[in-house]
Design brief:
Strand content: under 5%
Mean pLDDT: 83
Helix content: over 70%
Number of strands: 3
Number of helices: 11
Structural class: mainly alpha
Largest sheet: 3 strands, mixed
Length: 311
C-alpha cells in the first residue's frame, strides 16, 4: 500500500487517490473479497434473470414490470461501478485509483443513483394509478408515458451527476490524497479538500433537495392517495390485496432513501467515516442484490415466468 510522499501531500495537483477500504488485515481482506464476490455474483444473476424474464414473458409486459426491469438495469450498473474496484482493492497491494478513474466512478455512480431516485418516484405514481384508478390504468399508463418517465429519470440523473461531479473535482485537494473509504464519494473527498467550500455546500444541498427530497415528497403524496383509496375498500381481503401490490415498492423506497439520507443529509460535524462505510456498502452493493428478491419472492407472475423459463 503506497502512501503519498511529502511532495505529493502538499501538491495542489492530485494525480491519484489511495482507497483505504475496510481494513488492512490481509486475512480480513480475503474474507471480504469472498463476501463481495458472492454478493456481486448474486446481484448480476438476480438482476439479469429478472430483465430476461420481463423481456421474454408477455404476462410481464405491463407498466409495473417495465419500471422494475429498468430498476434492475440501474442496480446492475450501480453494482458494477463499485464492486470490481472493491475486489481489486481487497486482494491487491496497490490501493490507488487515478484521478480520472475517480472522476469516472463518481460520475456514473451519482448518475445511476440519482436516476434511481427519480425512477422510484415514477414507480410510486404507477402504483397510485393502479390502485386508485384501476379501470383507467392501462390507458393512462401507456408505453409512451412510461418511456417518458424512464427517459426523464435518466436525463435528470445524468445532468445532476455532471453538476455535482464538476463541482466536487473543482475543489482544491492540497491535503492527503488518502480516501478513507472503498470508493470515491462526497464526504471523504470534501474532507480532503481545502480552501473555500461554502459554494460547494450550497450546490450539494440544492442537489440533495432536487434528487432526494422532492422525489420523497412526491412518493409520500402518492402513498397518501393510495392509503385513502385502500381505506375506502370495504372488504379486508380487498384492502390486503391492494396493499400487497405496492408493498415491494414501499420496502425498496424505505431501504434506498433511508440509507442515502443517513449519509448525505446529516450535518458535517456528525460524519463518521467508519460508520458511513457500512451504510454506503448497503446502498451501493447490498441493495442492488436485494431488489430482485424484493420484487420476485412474493410475486406470483415472476415465479410463474421463472418456472416457464426453466421448463
Amino acid at each position: 500500500m503506497r502512501f503519498p510522499s511529502a511532495m505529493e501531500k502538499y501538491n495542489n495537483t492530485v494525480v491519484e487517490f489511495i482507497l483505504v477500504g475496510f481494513t488492512t488485515d490481509p486475512v480480513m481482506q480475503l474474507v471480504l473479497f469472498v463476501i463481495f464476490l458472492t454478493v456481486y455474483a448474486i446481484t448480476v444473476l438476480g438482476n439479469s434473470t429478472l430483465i430476461v424474464l420481463i423481456c421474454n414473458d408477455f404476462r410481464l409486459h405491463t407498466p409495473m414490470y417495465f419500471f422494475i426491469g429498468n430498476l434492475s438495469f440501474l442496480d446492475l450498473g450501480l453494482s458494477t461501478v463499485y464492486t470490481p474496484k472493491i475486489l481489486v482493492t481487497c486482494i491487491s497491494e496497490d490501493k490507488s485509483i487515478s484521478f480520472a478513474g475517480c472522476v469516472a466512478q463518481f460520475f456514473f455512480s451519482a448518475g445511476l443513483g440519482y436516476t434511481e431516485c427519480y425512477l422510484l418516484a415514477a414507480m410510486a405514481y404507477d402504483r397510485y394509478m393502479a390502485i386508485s384508478k384501476p379501470l383507467l390504468y392501462s390507458q393512462s399508463m401507456s408505453l409512451k408515458l412510461c418511456a417518458f418517465f424512464v427517459a426523464a429519470s435518466y436525463l435528470g440523473g445524468l445532468i445532476n451527476s455532471f453538476i455535482i461531479t464538476k463541482d466536487t473535482f473543482s475543489l482544491t485537494f492540497c491535503s492527503d490524497n488518502v480516501i478513507d473509504d472503498f470508493f470515491c464519494d462526497i464526504p471523504p473527498l470534501v474532507k480532503l479538500a481545502c480552501g473555500k467550500k461554502g459554494s460547494f455546500q450550497s450546490v450539494l444541498f440544492f442537489l440533495l433537495a432536487s434528487n432526494v427530497i422532492i422525489p420523497i415528497v412526491f412518493i409520500l403524496a402518492s402513498y397518501l392517495f393510495i392509503i385513502a383509496t385502500i381505506l375506502r375498500i370495504r372488504s379486508t381481503q380487498g384492502r390486503l390485496k391492494a396493499f400487497s401490490t405496492c408493498s415491494s415498492h414501499l420496502i425498496s423506497v424505505t431501504l434506498y432513501y433511508g440509507s442515502i439520507l443517513y449519509i448525505y443529509a446529516r450535518p458535517r460535524s456528525s460524519y463518521s467515516l467508519d460508520r458511513d462505510k457500512i451504510v454506503s456498502t448497503f446502498y451501493t452493493v447490498v441493495f442492488p442484490m436485494l431488489n430482485p428478491l424484493i420484487y420476485s419472492l412474493r410475486n406470483k407472475d415472476v415465479k410463474e415466468a421463472l418456472n416457464k423459463l426453466f421448463k
